[in-house]
Amino acid sequence: MKLFWNKTELEEKFVLTEAEINLLSKRSNANKFGVAVLMKYVQHKRKYPSEKKEIPLDLVKYIANKLNISAEEYRYYKLDLRNSEYRKQRYIIRKYYSLKVRTKNTSVYIANKYNSYIFRWLGGECYSLPI
């Protein structure tokens, strides 16, 4: 993901819809802010960040401005899988965007599917893809 975004790009890619704002309405400021940033990151990248530093500061400031919350509130948001609240929020985001959890079985299925395409493309010679 780009680290620096201009205002026009932010408004095109990361605008909060009314439905997203309603989903955030019952949360504390830090959680509301953190979930909003996470939602927009996931919507754009289709994956969760492993660290806060993966999320561009421009995105954090833009969402803070849209939610009328101080950008400092983001400091208190815990991006940690050991935190049960964070795991619940990830579940809510997956459900909202209809995302599926990627498992080893789906990775094997996809690799096998593409192996068969590559096998045919190479004229029957067998090359295996790493999983």
For the largest beta-sheet, the strand count, sense and barrel status come to: none
Mean pLDDT: 78
Domain tally: 2
The separation of the N and C termini measures 25 Å
Number of strands: 0
So what's the overall shape?
Answer: globular
Summing up helix and strand content along with how strands pair, one would put the structural category as mainly alpha
Radius of gyration: 19 Å
- Share in helix: 55-70%
Strand percentage, roughly? under 5%
Contiguous low-pLDDT stretches (5 residues minimum) are 117-131
Order of helices and strands: HHHHHH
H/I helix tally? 6
Would you write up a description of this structure?
The protein has helices spanning 7-13, 18-24, 29-45, 57-67, 84-97, 104-121. With 131 residues, it is an all-alpha fold. The chain has two domains: 7-99, no CATH class; 101-131, no CATH class. Helix 3 crosses helix 5. 15% of the residues are buried. Residues 117-131 have low confidence and may be disordered.
